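Sequence in, structure out. Go.
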Amino acid sequence: MSMAPRLAALLLALLVLCLQASVVAAGEAVIRTHPESAGVRSLPVDCSDAEGEGWTSYRIEAPAVGWDARPLAVLVSGLAVDRVRISQGDRVYCGQYGDGARADSRFRTGVGGVFVPAQGSSNPVRVAVSGAALQFWPVVIDVGSPASVQRSDALRFAFRIAMLAITFSVVISTALAWVALREVSLLSLSVNTALVVVWIAMITGLSGFPEAWLPVGEARLRILLSSPLLVAGITVFLMMRSGRLRRGEKGVLLITAGCCLLALLAVAAWGVPWSYIPAFTQWAEVGVFLLFTGVVLVCLPGALRRRLLPVANLLGVLPLAVVSTLGVFAAGGFGEWKVEAYVGGAAWIAVASSSMLMMRLASLRRQRDEMRALAQSDPLTGLGNRRTALARLQDEVDRRRALGTEFGLVYVDIDHFKQINDGFGHASGDRVLGGVAQLLRQLVRASDVVARFGGDEFVLILVGADEATSLRLAERVRERIELLPLVGSGPEAPLSCTASIGVVSSARYPEAGAEELLRRADEAMYAAKKGGRNRVVRG
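Output:
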């Protein structure tokens, strides 16, 4: 018994044992225990300085008749939110945005709490938020019954998880494609999209579940500002490059300059004083708006002409162009879902960029395949050329040595072809070559090889054919060429031709290589010519 069946039997036995060990009886439950440290708000947050500098306070006033003693949920989120303190009467919640171990586990997209105000109480709910006050990114406070707030929170959380998963899948797919193809643009896109994944995880707070696995501390806001600027610039640059737009166009030059400017702003975000962060954020978002709007304007003419790549570019950037426009001109009414809108647009453009790059690579591979086909085929007859014939002959020799298979080699030379060219013209000679090539293609199987080996010489490689089969086919080729209806320079100048054919079987020369078999077939063909032409000779 060989090694392979033994390994297969061993693996099958191990699989059966594993299945037996993992069987759970009907009705039996699997009980999982969780450590105590995974509870709600396992790590305390210090909010004792909530009235000090760097905090912004908000009040949620009671109705005119006072609270009605029903539970009230409050959820706070936002781009620049750091620590949050929520209080009503003696009840106080203090949490850290982006750290699931430092917030109420009933809420996922921000810091929240549930209060039960006393009947008729008019004490307001007080919210204090530490972090920069940004004009285009307001603090979002959801207030309502616990059920409604938690449903909205769960919807946001599910959407954010889905967008993160989609973007992460783009990272994996482009990384695997780079490993297979070694294309630098694929690696660039994979790294660029990985930055998008990190940005999505941080801006949505997903980097804090089940606890903060991306501890960036006070650098969080600077990362949230710099990474999208860098990513937007790189993404648009890659898309423009994949779009094959003319480099001299003014619009393309302006977009390229915009990409460079955003990259510089991404670097500058790390050196801007904290007091200038709000103004910097405004200008950064305006820059993103201008960049994506510029891409839309540049791609629109080509898209209207239904050119594929401009259409793909336009579809890729359009969601973020709309989102950035609303973010600049309608930040107030748009702020509630702004994070989700930007996250969805980022995931969309990541998928669109990878798709466009794959389209570009597919186009390049098609061009390469076309060039390879041109290099391996004869332009006059459409058959394979000498290079193709030699490569396939070597393949058959290698296969015969490895598997013991047979093949036949048939060498066809048109008789008196020079006289045909001289007497009837080269156009007639080309028609003869085309007619013979078409005939040969019809007489062989799809698995066989037909190639134009020289000016008036053709080679047939008959895969799996023995000597008798090869000789019969060669004789049939000779007869059909002799009967082939050809026309010379005019309708009244009928033209016919014959062929001398040499045949070699691999079974007769089992140790011969490709060059020796070809030489013997050539010698047999010349023997046919010396014997009077229009005949088949075995080599």
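Check: DSSP finds 14 helices and 14 strands in the chain. The chain has three domains: 40-144, 151-372, 386-538.
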